[in-house]
Structure formats: C-alpha cells, structure tokens
C-alpha cells in the first residue's frame, strides 16, 4: 500500500466511525455508519447521516419558485429517508395513477366474436398445443385488425389469416381464410407432389399489403431448404 492509500483509509475511519454522542439514545453502535450504505437499508427509520442539501441548485430553485413549490406533479423529497422508503412511496403513487385507467379500460373491453378453431377430446389429460405463431397487425388506413397464426397437426403447410374491422359493429368479407403453401415452389407440374412440400416456420406482416413468411422443406433429409417469401395480401 502506498502512503496515499493509508491516508485515505485513515481519513475514512476518522470521518465515519468517530463517536457520536448525539446518537447515544439510538439502538445499536454509537458511531456514524458509512454514508452510502444507509440509503440502501430497507427500513422506515430516518437516516443516521442525512445529506446536506445546502447550496443544492434544484432545492433552491423550488424554494424560490412560487408555482412549483406546492405543485402536486412534483414528487416530494424525503431527505431523512432511505431509497427503499422513497421507492415504496413512488410505487404507491404510480399504482394509484394506473388504477383508474385500468378500471375504465377493463370495463370497456368486451367479446366481439367467437370462432371455433378446433375441437379436442374431453378424455385427454393434457390439451395439445395446436395454436402457434399468433402475430397481430393493425391496418390504420383501412381500420382493419389482422391475426396471423398456424395450426399444428394436420395443417402445418397452412397459414391462417383472421381479419376483423376495428368497428365491432361492422363485418368484412372473408373474415378468416387459410393459405396453403404445399408444393407451390415446384418448377413444373410434372414434379412429384410430395417431393418438395413446405411448412411455415414463421410469419409476420411486412406492411399493410405484404406478408413475409419463412418456409421449411418438409422432406426428412439433411440440408432442408429454407425459403423467405413475401406474399401480397390481395
């Protein structure tokens, strides 16, 4: 250790661990705790060594401002409390602010339509996952909601598109349809239909008029082909 290091440690001990008679009536040891650690204690007790805010530009600005001094939008400052205490206070305020919107939004949500996608046997112990890749898209120009998804099991080569109007009182034609990829990439009609069958790995809307899909060759062999295709929604 250098002499500078020893001096630094000595100064630290002198400043923070000297006897403090004004703390004798408190529980515990009779010397100042390290000033950073006191802010991290999860306690409601006042800080042993509160910070000195004298000369702080922000506090002076608030003190001299008639309009901001009692402004309810400014979070109150607790110079005698730890960060845990302030955190709990702030969480309480945030929860209170979010409660009203949550109640209003919750009461405004209702079921617009119910579509039966598949049925399963009631005797099965565990329900199989048949619904995959749900992706949502909102076409603000036409006021339409879209949901892209695939169904597993016997329809892995299909992608389903559900379309609803944002106005629940209105309906749109072809509310739900399926696009089957199958062997559409074959070079000719003479190719064996099962030789190059494709299933959908993923699908997203690229924009309001285009759907991007990632296809996988379904043949059980090494080096399965992957295809990135962009399909016009029309």
Structural account:
Residues 136-234 form the Anaphase-promoting complex subunit 4 C-terminal half WD40 domain. One of its GO terms (biological process) is cell division. This is APC4 protein. Pfam families: WD40_APC4_C-half (PF23405). Keywords: Cell cycle, Cell division, Mitosis, Ubl conjugation pathway. It is a single chain. This protein is of the alpha+beta class and 234 residues long. The chain has 2 domains: 3-108, no CATH class; 135-184 and 193-232, no CATH class. It contains 3 helices and 7 strands, in the order H-H-H-E-E-E-E-E-E-E. The chain has helices spanning 3-16, 57-64, 83-108; strands spanning 131-139, 144-151, 158-165, 176-180, 198-207, 210-217, 226-232. It has a 4-stranded antiparallel beta sheet, with no helix packed on it. Strand 6 (210-217) and strand 7 form a beta hairpin. The model has no long low-confidence stretch (mean pLDDT 78).
Descriptors:
three-stranded antiparallel sheet; elongated; cell cycle; APC4 protein; 234 residues; 2 domains; 3 helices; ubl conjugation pathway; cell division
Short overview:
This is APC4 protein. This protein folds into 2 domains: 3-108, no CATH class; 135-184 and 193-232, no CATH class. The chain contains 3 helices and 7 strands; from the N terminus they run αααβββββββ.
